[in-house]
Amino acid sequence: MQISFRKKIFTLLLGVLCGLQLTAGEQPDEKHIRTAMRLLGHQLLLSAGDSTSRVLPVEKEGNSYRIRFASDFGFDPEELVKLMDSVNLHTNFARHYLVEVVDCDTGNVVYSYEVGGTEDIIPCKGRKQDVGCYTVVLNILDAPGPVTSAPVTGPNSKTAAVRTNAFIPLAVLTVLLLIISVLWVYFRKSEGPAEIQANLIPLGAYRYDATNMELQLKDERMELTGKENELLLLLYQSANTTLERETILNKVWGDEGVYIGRTLDVFISKLRKKLEHDPGLKIVNVRGVGYKLVVNG
Q1: Alpha helices of 157-238 — where are they, by DSSP H?
Q2: What values do phi and psi take at 206, rounded to 5?
Q3: What element of type H or E holds 141?
Q4: What is the residue-wise DSSP string for 184-199?
Q5: Higher confidence at residue 200 or residue 126?
Q6: Looking at the domain covering 199-295, what would its CATH class be?
Q7: Which helix (H) or strand (E) holds 65?
């Protein structure tokens, strides 16, 4: 399945974070923790079978990080524990931390566990949580001690230390990215034709692959940008139903910045161009309301 491929890439990305951190001899900074938390959020959605919903920007309050999601989902506590363990293994953000899953509507904690105290407290790992609106909160109760290295001595010690600290992480990052590129190609090939076909959505004369962001027409493949893909998926999910402009803007652009002028109309025009080979597919402008994807047959 495509989810298994994403898990492999998720692990490799965490490996990059780990390599940079250990090479530089520094603790994970806030940016690394935020990145790791977003990866955790994406992987948690994937474990729930959701490969399209967004993980919203991670919020930091004191020593707590809040992971919010654009869509409802259900989760397996045991899977959450494994994913968080994997993140901490690669980034070493804390020895002692508390994870809470909070119900968005009631503010109640529906699941929590603690790692790194006198003993780990991990209850109810076998009970799966129903689909709902959840926020995952990571509370760091203490941080790992600083990593120290032997001082560089001599008349040019300061310059040498700066050059060494700047060069080594860059070199390691380059090697890691090269390895990931090779493994990416290998894993893509190992997925096999049957798994790729499972992702295809029949759309008139086309086959729509929302996961890999492309349209297929016979032997032709047309790549979609991120926004084109989100817009087409939204229209497809409400095929033959009019979607209001505001609904489209909120779901596709959300809180990613100020909506400027005719941006939506430009993306609609691009999708129409890519769908023009099938006269049975039309994106209709419902004047004063919004747009509708008309699928005939």
Answers
A1: 157-190, 192-197, 226-237
A2: -100, 165
A3: strand 134-142
A4: HHHHHHHTHHHHHHTT
A5: 200
A6: mainly alpha
A7: strand 64-67
